[in-house]
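1st attempt posting a full record on here, be nice pls
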Amino acid sequence: MTDAVKPASKRVRLKRLNKRGAYDRASIDAILDAMPLAHVGYVFDGAPYVTPTLQWREGDHVYWHGSSASRMLRAAEDTEVCLTVSLLDGMVLARSAFHHSVNYRSVMLLGRAFKVTDPEEKAERFKGLIEALYPGRWDMLRPVKAIEVKATSVLGMKIAEGSAKVRTGPPIDDEEDNALPIWAGVVPVSMRMGKAVADSYVPAGLGPPAHVGKIRIG
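the predicted structure (as tokens):
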């Protein structure tokens, strides 16, 4: 990747294969928006933990949520955390074991997590999550209950210190290996949505809403 934007700090500056890195918001946002599954790293009782969760971006901030009883969210509040998002795009088969690789897109964000405490703002963040995953669904749902808002914690982090890293293309073998009679290339990997399956309470004849067909990941 070519990008004139400099890293926000030494912590996110790519040192190995730095040509694959980018620090501009367009590159970072595109990957965040393409994959809701994230992993948040934090320190709890002096030990490192990495927890999977759903993330969504609203403007200059990324948010994630969980139970108010979650030790991860309690530990992460007002502390430094690392949030990562990754997409696997292909398996790269080379002519030597050393040059096998994968095509991927990834983002790493560093920053101090903050807790969303105002109930109305939390409800707005819930809306942001639903709309990010299922555009147009929020307005057709029953209103959230106060007890649901209280039982759920929402943490956020400003997108200010981060980097994207992307690998694309075929294997890069040693030049002398290219003449070997060994198959090499890329096996694409992608996520796809299956056919929607209604639960047992959906009335007969009521099909899935239009936004089901708009769900996109990857």
